[in-house]
Amino acid sequence: MKFLLALMILPAVAFSAPAKRVYSEEEFIKKVNEEVKKKVDSIKNKSVSDLTKELLDKEEKLRIRELELEKQQDSLKVSDNDIAKRYAELSAKQKDFIGCAEKNNEESKGRIGQLVEMVSNMKPEKAASVLSVQDPEIAVQILQLIDAKKASKIFNFMDKDISAKLQKQYLQMKK
To answer: Is-above-0.85 flag for pTM?
Structure first.
């Protein structure tokens, strides 16, 4: 029975196993070179396609970055123009303000000049009573522009506290 079983399995094994082929050394080298070439070509093809895809991806990223930079440049140009415009507006307003302030200073000097003339024409006693109730800063400006002898007489007729206060301001103003 074992013999019969062996006879049945032997032909099946004999037909199913591939026959080993024996290669000469030249045939073996040739076959190995062909297989290596196939592998290298598949790697090359795969690498080239991967490389191409990678290059295209990088090119797309660079294009997107370039667009972003262009947008930033446009934004900066708009900002620069906006800043220049605002600076021009601010400069114009500043000139107007300075002009207005200078005009007010000139008018104030004119009014102070009129007061100086009025106080200069008053008697020292009357001038002292007028300047005693006047705003100290204005009083000091008036006294500064009046003749020194006239100013000293006016100080003599003022209340001592007010006179001391105005003299102190007068001295600080001279510095």
So the answer is: no
Residue 1 is predicted with a pLDDT of: 46
Residues 93 and 134 in one domain: no
Q: Which of 101, 131, 151 is the last residue of a domain?
A: 101
Q: Is 1 inside any structural domain?
A: no
Residues 6+ apart with CB under 8 A from 124: 150, 153, 154, 156, 157
Could you tell me the end-to-end alpha-carbon distance of the chain, in angstroms, rounded to an integer?
A: 139
Q: Are 122 and 96 in contact (CB under 8 A)?
A: no
Per residue in 88-115, pLDDT (tens digit) is 999 999 999 998 889 888 888 888 888 8
Start-end of H helices in 122-159: 124-133, 136-145, 148-157
Domain assignment present for 166: yes
Could you tell me the CA-to-CA distances from 25 to 19, 30, 32, 35 in Å, in that order? 19, 9, 11, 15
Whether the CA torsion 161, 166, 172, 175 is positive or negative: it is negative
Cα 53 from Cα 125, distance rounded (Å): 103
The predicted-structure confidence for 125-145, as pLDDT tens digits, reads as follows 998 888 888 888 888 888 888
- Tokens matching residue 158: 């003022």
Residue 43: domain span: 33-101
Q: Cβ distance 119 to 142 under 8 Å?
A: yes
